[in-house]
Specification:
mainly beta; ATP Synthase, domain 1; 0% helix; proton-transporting ATP synthase activity, rotational mechanism; ATPsynth_dsu/esu_N; ATP synthesis
């Protein structure tokens, strides 16, 4: 099964990066789930939590607000003005 290369960054540092099975984030349009081979998308983040399920099954949670989420070629980039691990 394909994997996602995920990067969660704030304005001044990288909060988390690694390989994942799934990413769930809140956008201004509602919650979105990203799995491998998801179609390309660019979305504005809503206030809330980002949940990343790593390939080992662990769940990484981060608060991220005021930014965007980009998906392309199994690469997920979440850029937020404020982001921190929970």
């Amino acid at each position: 099964m394909a994997e996602l290369k995920v990067s969660v960054v704030s304005a001044d540092s990288e909060v988390w990066s690694g390989l994942a099975k799934r990413v769930v984030a809140r956008t201004t349009e509602g919650e979105i789930g990203i799995l491998p081979d998801h179609e390309p998308i660019l979305a504005i983040l809503g206030a809330g939590e980002v949940r990343v399920t790593a390939v080992d099954g662990s769940v990484i949670k981060a608060n991220a607000e005021d930014g965007f989420l980009s998906v392309e070629n199994n690469s997920v980039t979440i850029v937020a003005r404020n982001a921190e691990l929970v």
